[in-house]
Specification:
The radius of gyration is 23 Å and the shape is globular. The strands form two sheets. Strands 8-7-6-5-4-3-9 form a seven-stranded mixed sheet, sandwiched between helices. A two-stranded antiparallel sheet has the order 1-2. With about 200 residues, it is of the alpha+beta class. Helix content is about 20%, strand content about 35%.
Length: about 200
């Protein structure tokens, strides 16, 4: 009898147990037993949501770009300096040439000193309606070692609160009247968040 068990499928927490049985009665027969434990059990292990303070740290000029730098921190009032410095460097290296190829030379960076790791999201507005993003991660004890996240990730609930505010600010100051778009008002439209 062959058996194997405990195959966890891609974050769903689904355990599938298969049992194969070879009977020696003149042929092989397959007997498969599946035990599925639904992903709800994974949710019980997640800590309850707690708001985190988030705020605009500053507006930075980077090679022709004007970028709102936001900070979120799980353990302190704002992200550590090593992380914000690394975020600036990765943003400069990531952003394309300003005001070219349909971009508008403005965007925002979210610097999140989180619990499992450090995260930086570099976002910029393109073609009026589109937001481009690059997402980076580093270990908590080495915040300056940011590497691009290659999995299909958009952001966590705290980071998405900033993205939601920025979307509303962009619509309010730029898209409501594109002929009279006010990029200065967009850049000034920032708030402190209880994310």
């Amino acid at each position: 009898m062959n058996s194997f068990a405990g195959s966890w499928l891609s974050g769903l927490g689904t355990c599938v147990t298969h049992r194969y049985q070879d009977l020696r009665d003149g042929g092989a027969r397959l007997d498969v037993k599946r035990v599925i434990i639904l992903g709800v059990s994974n949710l019980a292990a997640i800590a309850p949501y707690r708001p985190r303070p988030g705020r605009l740290l500053r507006i930075e000029r980077m090679d022709g770009w004007r970028i709102k730098m936001y900070g979120i921190a799980a353990a302190a009032g704002q992200p550590r300096t090593q992380l914000t410095d690394a975020a600036h460097k990765v943003a400069v290296a990531t952003l394309p040439v300003a005001n070219a190829d349909g971009n508008h030379g403005v965007g925002f960076v979210v610097v999140h000193d989180a619990r499992p790791a450090c995260f930086v999201l570099v976002n910029w507005w393109v073609h009026g309606y589109d937001l481009y993003q690059r997402y980076f991660r580093s270990p908590l004890d080495r915040p300056e070692q940011l590497l691009a996240i290659t999995t299909p990730a958009v952001g966590c609930v705290w980071e998405l609160a900033v993205t939601g505010h920025e979307r509303h600010a962009w619509v309010r100051h730029v898209l409501t009247s594109p002929a009279a778009a006010d990029l200065e008002a967009y850049l000034a439209d920032a708030a402190d968040f209880g994310l």
